[in-house]
Write a structure and sequence with these properties.
Elements (H helix, E strand, L loop, with lengths): L3 H27 L2 H4 L8 E8 H5 L4 H4 L1 H4 L7 E9 L17 H11 L2 H10 L8 H13 L5 H4 L5 E3 L1 H11 L8 E6 L2 E9 L20 E3 L4
Antiparallel strand pairs: 1-2, 1-5, 3-6, 4-5
Helix pairs in contact: 6-7
C-alpha cells in the first residue's frame, strides 16, 4: 500500500504544478501580445512620430528635466519621437530582441533630430529592434523618413497659440507634402492640445495611407502652442 506520506507528497507536487500553470496563464493575459510575439521584420508599414515640443515642454517640470529640448530661445517645434514598425490592425511589434546600447557615434548623429540620448536608446530597444535592420541602417532610415516630411508654414511660423481641427492640420501637411496620400498623416492630441503628427510610409519609405492602428485625435478642435 502507498503510505499516507507519499500520497500527501504527490498531492503537494500536483498542487504546486497547478499553481505554476495558473500563474503562467495570468501572466500571459497581462503581457501584451505584441510584446510576447514581437518578431523582427514582421510588420506592415512604418509610422514616423513627430512630437510637438512646445506641448511637451509645457508640462510641469519637463523643461527643467529636458533642457536640450525645452530651453527658451531655441524655437524648437517638432522633434522625431520615433520610427515605429506598425501593423495594419492592432498594435505593432515591440522589443523584438535584446538590444545593445547605441554607439556614441550614432547617438551624436541623431541628436539634431531626436535631441535626447535617452530617447535614442529607448527607440532602438523598443522599436528599432523590430525593424529587421541593424542599428546603423535603422537610424539612417529614421533620418530619411524625417527628411521626407516638410512642415507646413502655418505651423512652422507660429508666434502665438492657435486653435485648429485635426483635419485642418492633416490637410496642411498633405498640401505641403504632395507625395503623401490624403490619409498619409494622423494627428495625436492630449487634453485638447496637439502632441504629435504621424506620417506613414511603406517598408521602402514610400508615403502611404495610415491604417486605423495609427490612431486619430477625435477632439473637434485642438490648441497648438507656439515654439519658445
Amino acid at each position: 500500500m502507498i503510505s499516507t506520506h507519499i500520497v500527501k507528497k504527490r498531492r503537494t507536487r500536483v498542487g504546486a504544478l497547478l499553481a505554476l500553470i495558473i500563474c503562467a496563464a495570468i501572466v500571459s493575459r497581462l503581457v501584451p501580445a505584441q510584446v510576447r510575439q514581437g518578431v523582427a521584420g514582421q510588420f506592415d508599414y512604418y509610422l514616423l512620430s513627430l512630437a510637438w515640443a512646445p506641448e511637451f515642454c509645457a508640462q510641469p517640470d519637463e523643461a527643467a528635466r529636458n533642457p536640450q529640448e525645452c530651453v527658451s530661445g531655441r524655437n524648437i517645434g517638432f522633434i522625431v519621437h520615433g520610427l515605429w514598425p506598425e501593423a495594419e490592425q492592432g498594435n505593432g511589434p515591440e522589443s523584438c530582441g535584446q538590444a545593445r546600447s547605441v554607439s556614441k557615434g550614432i547617438v551624436n548623429s541623431m541628436l539634431g533630430a531626436m535631441l535626447s540620448p535617452g530617447l535614442i536608446q529607448h527607440e532602438w530597444a523598443t522599436h528599432g529592434t523590430c525593424s529587421g535592420l541593424n542599428v546603423s541602417s535603422y537610424f539612417t532610415t529614421v533620418l530619411l523618413a524625417r527628411a521626407a516630411v516638410q512642415i507646413p508654414v502655418q505651423i512652422s511660423s507660429l508666434t502665438e497659440q492657435v486653435t485648429e481641427s485635426p483635419s485642418q492640420i492633416e490637410g496642411q501637411f498633405v498640401g505641403t507634402n504632395p507625395a503623401f496620400p490624403k490619409d498619409g498623416f494622423r494627428i495625436a492630441c492630449r487634453n485638447g492640445a496637439l502632441t504629435e503628427v504621424r506620417a506613414c510610409f511603406d517598408k521602402n519609405l514610400k508615403p502611404r495611407q495610415c491604417s486605423s492602428a495609427a490612431g486619430e485625435c477625435r477632439t473637434a478642435s485642438i490648441a497648438i502652442r507656439p515654439p519658445r
